[in-house]
Amino acid sequence: TLIATQSNLYSVQKNPNKPLNTSEKEVEQFIGICIYMSIYGLPRSRMYWNGNTRVEKVAHVMSRNRWEELKANLHFNNNDHMPLQNDPNKDRLFKIRPLVDALQNKFKNIPIEEQMLCVDEQIVPFKGTSLLKQYNPMKPHK
User: Which of 68, 100, 119, 123 is such that its CA lies 20 to 30 A from the CA of 139?
Assistant: First the structure.
């Protein structure tokens, strides 16, 4: 509901004459398509709807134009409440803060048995820029 509401609000802020009018169900379909695309792995998103590379499981759920419209308007927080750039208490995750908070609350509700747990992760090299990136001298691939 939050994603649909904020995405609809953003689309009106961007262009009042062209509201997005999305729903929670449509946002779920959009996210499902994104997950499926990440697994299926075609090089360009438009290929999922094009003739000989068309993927019915994607194309049947949503049109390409609608998927691109949702992608362009996807928002999690109201830009009108964004702190100023020079604010020393600025939240770097402001744009996705509601999503982060919702996920943290869900993770807290996962039952954990009283036993030793081992979590292993793959550390992936990252060459891009991010204010959230941290230097880890123990990282195997830099």
Answer: 100
